[in-house]
Design a protein that fits this description.
The protein is α/β, with parallel strands linked by helices and about 450 residues long. It has four domains: about 110 residues, Tetrapyrrole methylase, N-terminal domain (Cobalt-precorrin-4 Transmethylase, domain 1, 3-Layer(aba) Sandwich); about 100 residues, Methyltransferase, Cobalt-precorrin-4 Transmethylase, Domain 2 (2-Layer Sandwich); about 100 residues, Helix Hairpins (Orthogonal Bundle); about 60 residues, no CATH class. The protein has 18 helices and ten strands. Strands 3-2-4-1-5 form a five-stranded parallel sheet, with helices on both faces. Strands 6-7-10-8-9 form a five-stranded mixed sheet, with no helix packed on it. It is elongated. It starts with 17 loop residues before the first strand and ends with a helix.
Length: about 450
C-alpha cells in the first residue's frame, strides 16, 4: 500500500520547503485543536482558502483565495488555481494553509496538493482537525460506521451516489440550485430529510423538512448539510448523468458556451421536425408493433430534442432563473391540475369517445382559467403551420360549441370569386373533413407529398 508522504514520517531535508495544512473545524475557534492554534500562531506566511468561515478571524493577516471564486469557471478550476498558487508560493519558503472543517474531509485542494508536492519536491504536512461530521453524528444520534453512512458532496450526488439507497450525509448544500439538483436525482422521493446548518455555532439549526420542499423551504448557505436516512429507489443515474454532461459541455465546449436561448431556436425547430419525421416512419405501424430500426431512429431523434430542453435549462440555471427540476415540476403540477378526473373527484368517468370530448372541453376550460383568457382563440399561435393552425382553431371552436363545418364561407362576402379566399376556404373545409374522419391533415398531406416525390424519382431514373 502506498501511503502519502507526510512530515510525520519523512524528515524535512535542508533547503526543502514545507506546506502545513490545518483545518478550522466546523464552527468558531472554540472547536480548534491546540496543535492547529499553535501552528497558526507560529507560521510566518499564512494562506486561507476562504474567509467565509467563523474561525477565519484567527488569520486576519492571511492571504485568502476568495478572488479565485469570482473568476473561476467551475469549482474544479478554482481548486486547481488555488493549488497552483500555493505551490508557487511554497517554492520561496515554508507556509501554512488553512481550510474550512477538516483538511481530510471533502477538501479537493488538499487532494491536489498531495498529488503535486512530490513532483515539486515540497514537503506536505496535514494536521488532523475536527470536521462538521463529528458534530453531525452527535446531533443525529448515530454511529456512521455501524449505520453504513455514505458521505457525498451534494454537487456530485447524482453521480457519486447513483445506484445506492443510502443512508447519505450530503455536504456542501450551499444554495437552492444544488438542492434542486439533489431532488431531481431521486426517482422515488422519500418523505423527508433532515437539515443541519451552522453546526456548533450559536444559531445552529437541525430540523426535518418535506422532501418536496428541500429547495424551497431551506435557506441554504455554505454551512448547510442534508441527512437522507434511506431512498426507496436508486438514483436516476442516466437522467442526471445526462444533465451533468450538458453542464460540462456548456463549461468546456466553445460552441456550447456561445449559445443563447435565441441562437438555439433554429436548432430546437430542426430537432422537432426530425422527431416528426421519425414518428411518420412509425405511423403505419401499430404502437404495440416492434421495428428495431424505426424505434432506434425515434429514440435517437427524441434524445436530440431532449438535449435542447436540457440546454435551455442549463442556460436558465446559470442566471439563477430555473433548472430542469423547475421544468419537470411545472409540467407535473400542470398535468395534475388539468386532469381532475384522474386526481380528484370531478364527476367525470368512463373512457368512451363522448367522455373524451367532455374531457377536451374541460381541458380548455381549465387552461382559460389558468391563463385568464376570455376567448377560445386566446393563446393560439398564428405562427403555426397553416394546416395545424386550422386544426387547432377548429378544435377550440368545437370545445365552445362553435362547429366550423357548418359555418359556410368564412371570408368577406364582398370578395366574391377571389381565388385566394376561395382556395383558403376550401383548405379550411378540408381540415374540417380531416377532423371528422380523425385524420391528421398535416401528416396526410406530407405522406402524399412524399409518395409523389418517390414517383418523380422513379420516373427520372
Amino acid at each position: 500500500m502506498n501511503f502519502p508522504r507526510s512530515a510525520n514520517r519523512v524528515p524535512k531535508r535542508e533547503g526543502q520547503s514545507k506546506i502545513t495544512v490545518v483545518g478550522l473545524g466546523p464552527a468558531d475557534e472554540s472547536l480548534l485543536t491546540n496543535q492547529t492554534v499553535a501552528a497558526i500562531k507560529t507560521a510566518s506566511r499564512r494562506f486561507l482558502r476562504t474567509r467565509r468561515h467563523p474561525a477565519a478571524s484567527l488569520l486576519a493577516d492571511a492571504v485568502d483565495f476568495d478572488d479565485e471564486y469570482d473568476i473561476g469557471e467551475s469549482f474544479e478550476a478554482v481548486y486547481r488555481a488555488i493549488s497552483d498558487r500555493l505551490l508557487r508560493e511554497a517554492a520561496t519558503g515554508d507556509l501554512l494553509y488553512a481550510v474550512p472543517g477538516s483538511p481530510l474531509v471533502l477538501e479537493r485542494t488538499v487532494e491536489l496538493l498531495r498529488e503535486a508536492t512530490v513532483a515539486a519536491d515540497l514537503q506536505l504536512e496535514v494536521l488532523p482537525a475536527m470536521s462538521f461530521l463529528d458534530v453531525a453524528w452527535s446531533r443525529l444520534g448515530i454511529d456512521p460506521i455501524t449505520s453504513g453512512v455514505r458521505l457525498v458532496d451534494a454537487q456530485r450526488f447524482a453521480v457519486d451516489a447513483a445506484g445506492q439507497r443510502g443512508p447519505f450525509l450530503l455536504a456542501h448544500c450551499y444554495n437552492q440550485r444544488v438542492l434542486s439538483e439533489v431532488k431531481l436525482a431521486v426517482d422515488e422521493e422519500p418523505e423527508s430529510a433532515v437539515v443541519l446548518q451552522r453546526l456548533g455555532l450559536p444559531d445552529e439549526a437541525v430540523f426535518e423538512v418535506a422532501w418536496s420542499e428541500i429547495d424551497r423551504e431551506i435557506n441554504a448557505d455554505h454551512l448547510t448539510s442534508l441527512w437522507i436516512p434511506e431512498l426507496a429507489e436508486p438514483l436516476a443515474g442516466e437522467f442526471v448523468r445526462f444533465e451533468e454532461l450538458v453542464r460540462e459541455l456548456r463549461e468546456r465546449c466553445v460552441w456550447d458556451q456561445a449559445q443563447t436561448h435565441g441562437s438555439l431556436r433554429k436548432h430546437f425547430l430542426e430537432e422537432s421536425y426530425e422527431v416528426l419525421e421519425a414518428l411518420d416512419g412509425r405511423a403505419s405501424l401499430d404502437d404495440s408493433e416492434v421495428d428495431a430500426n424505426l424505434d432506434s431512429h425515434l429514440v435517437e431523434e427524441l434524445g436530440d430534442l431532449l438535449y435542447q430542453v436540457f440546454f435551455h435549462a442549463r442556460i436558465g440555471a446559470e442566471r439563477g432563473s430555473f433548472t430542469v427540476t423547475d421544468i419537470v415540476r411545472t409540467i407535473h403540477d400542470k398535468l395534475v391540475t388539468r386532469h381532475p378526473h384522474v386526481f380528484a373527484d370531478q364527476g367525470v368517468v368512463g373512457v368512451g369517445q363522448q367522455d373524451a370530448e367532455v374531457l377536451a372541453r374541460r381541458w380548455e376550460e381549465i387552461k382559460r382559467q389558468e391563463k385568464g383568457r376570455v376567448s377560445a382563440m386566446d393563446g393560439v399561435q398564428t405562427s403555426l403551420p397553416a394546416l395545424l393552425l386550422a386544426a387547432k382553431v377548429q378544435d377550440r371552436s368545437i370545445n365552445v360549441g362553435f362547429d366550423a363545418a357548418h359555418l359556410g364561407p368564412i371570408g368577406d362576402k364582398q370578395t366574391g370569386n377571389n381565388p385566394y379566399d376561395r382556395v383558403g376556404e376550401l383548405l379550411f373545409a378540408l381540415v374540417s373533413l380531416c377532423r371528422e374522419f380523425d385524420v391528421d391533415a398535416e401528416a396526410a398531406l406530407r405522406a402524399v407529398t412524399v409518395r409523389f416525390m418517390q414517383s418523380v424519382r422513379q420516373a427520372n431514373k
